[in-house]
Structures are given as C-alpha cells and as structure tokens.
Amino acid sequence: MNPVLKNIKTRRSVRSYKNTPVPKELIEKVIEAGNYAPAGNNSQSWRFVVVTDTEMRGKLYNTAYANWKRFFDNIKKNNPEHFETVKHYGEMKDPVYYEAPCVVFVIGTKAIDCALVTENMMLAAHSLGLGSCYLYFGAQVLDNPEIVKALDLKEKEKIFGPVILGYADKFPDPPPKKAPSVKWV
Ligand SMILES: Cc1cc2nc3c(=O)[nH]c(=O)nc-3n(C[C@H](O)[C@H](O)[C@H](O)COP(=O)(O)O)c2cc1C
User: Do 38 and 119 touch, CB atoms closer than 8 A?
Assistant: First the structure.
C-alpha cells in the first residue's frame, strides 16, 4: 500500500503507554510536522506547549481528572446505557492522559488550522513509532490559574488537543470505520 495511506489507515488513538520518555528530537519532529500544516493565508498562528515534567503532568492530571470525574459520574447517573460502553475508563489509573510521558498543547485562535496541526502531529508520531491521542478531556484544565499561567493563555486563545505522545504499551485494534457518505454530482 502507498506508505502515506498506510500510515493514515493504521494510526490509532493509543490509551496505554510505557513509562519510557520520548526523546526530545522525536518530539521536535512531531511538532515540525504539525507546523507544516496548511493554514488560512499561511498565517501559522498556532503555538505549542510541551509538558514532560512529572510534577507539571501531575498538576494537569489533578485538574483535568476532577472535571473528567464529574462528566463520568453524570453519565453514570443520567445515561446508564452509554455508561455501560465507557465504564472501563473508570478502572484506569489515569483515564485522562493515560500516563503518557509527553503532553503537547496546540494553542491558537483558528480552530480549523489548529485541528489540521494536530492531525499532522498524530500521523507523524505514528510514522516515527510513537503512539498518540487527541484529548478533549486533557484540555479541561482552565480552572487552575497555575496551569493557565504555565500555558501563557491569552484572551481568545484556545487549546486544541492536547496531543499525547509516548511508546504504546498496548496498540488498540482498529475501531469500526463507516464507509464514507459521498454524493457524486
Ligand atoms: C476532537 C476529539 C476529541 C477527542 N477526545 C478524546 C478524549 O478526551 N479521550 C480519548 O481517549 N480520546 C479522545 N479522542 C480520540 C477519539 O476517541 C478517537 O479518535 C476515535 O475513537 C477513533 O479512534 P482512532 O483515532 O483510533 O481512529 C478525541 C478525538 C477527537 C478528534
């Protein structure tokens, strides 16, 4: 298969990581790939914040986990059917960042541009032998002023991702993917 198509098709959201740090050169390669994303008017208005420090990752986890837990408990209470499909997350040690050794925040104001950056990053990570995952819940840290300060978040700026990176401990089976809905005109 064409190697680019193969990389796209075999990338997975990884939710189990080895406790092995990711070499800085690889993180830089992933960020460089993100930075090559297309952007409206080539503005490249995004920026990146990389967190590998254990203490800072702990602060991220404590803040995001509290928000995740509220969301999880709410599903349990109000949507038992859906809860059955997600309850295994409640048994994980870290159901937000999956203990990944590297968390990369993509920060910007232009959602489409930043989304393209994150996909480039995840594809690059996969091609370099790294697992990755886009984390909505990993961005739920804005109620902690210390984290907002560390991210240098300005008014109007938003977090995209974060994208976590690390060596996969378990590489998941592919989830079902629907055939594309296409109308040829
Ligand atoms: C906008 C967005 C938010 C996501 N948030 C989370 C998240 O908070 N936690 C998580 O484990 N996965 C998250 N994912 C990953 C999706 O669950 C995953 O892409 C999907 O299940 C398909 O699996 P695949 O990436 O292996 O193809 C997110 C993906 C996207 C695009």
Answer: no
